Amino acid sequence: MDLRYMKEALKEAKKAAKIGEVPIGCVIVYKDKIIGRGYNRRNTQKTTLAHAEITAIQKASKAMGDWRLEDCTLYVTLEPCQMCAGAIVQARIKEVIVGAMNPKAGCAGSILNILQMEEFNHRVELTTGIMEEECKKVLQDFFVDLRIRNRKEKEEKRKEMEREGVT
Q1: What note does UniProt attach to the cofactor annotation (predicted)?
Q2: Active site residues
């Protein structure tokens, strides 16, 4: 496990924040080299599939020339959801390193642990809490800014309606 790769995942998360997306970032490492990167783009791409992990898995598979990523480690800033956890298992990723846990939607230990279910033919090594505070802060800052923007937009809309005589 190497902190520099979680720092790279955080850089990816910040790319998402810059375009107004929930800041989640991911990198996949093979033999000390990043072979896949991704950040959340669900809103900009208008698809539920544009999660950081899915994008990184697609890029890593292309780089490896194989869907099997057996000797790879995935670093992600927020605990994977059920879709991403399933894709990680399907890709046969060896290890997942998680920054912050996600008690509302996480499927690497919070709600359930898809990555290590004995019923599946593959289980993933899991480490959590790596650079947890930094990963949480990126998310917290994003949601504070989002609430402020939403309040301003609501207030502007209210003022516009008052000017037009609509109450």
Answers
A1: Binds 1 zinc ion per subunit.
A2: 53
Could you report the per-residue pLDDT of 108-122, keeping only the tens digit for each? 999 999 999 999 999
Per-residue pLDDT tens over the stretch 21-60: 999 999 999 999 999 999 999 999 999 999 999 999 999 9
> What is the second-level CATH architecture of the domain 3-164?
3-Layer(aba) Sandwich (3.40)
pTM over 0.70: yes
Residue carrying structure tokens 């989640």: 24
The annotated binding site for Zn(2+) is made up of 51, 81, 84
pLDDT of residue 134: 98
Place of tokens 């642990």: 113
Q: Is the pLDDT of residue 77 over 80?
A: yes
Which amino acids are annotated as binding site, given as ranges? Answer: 51, 81, 84
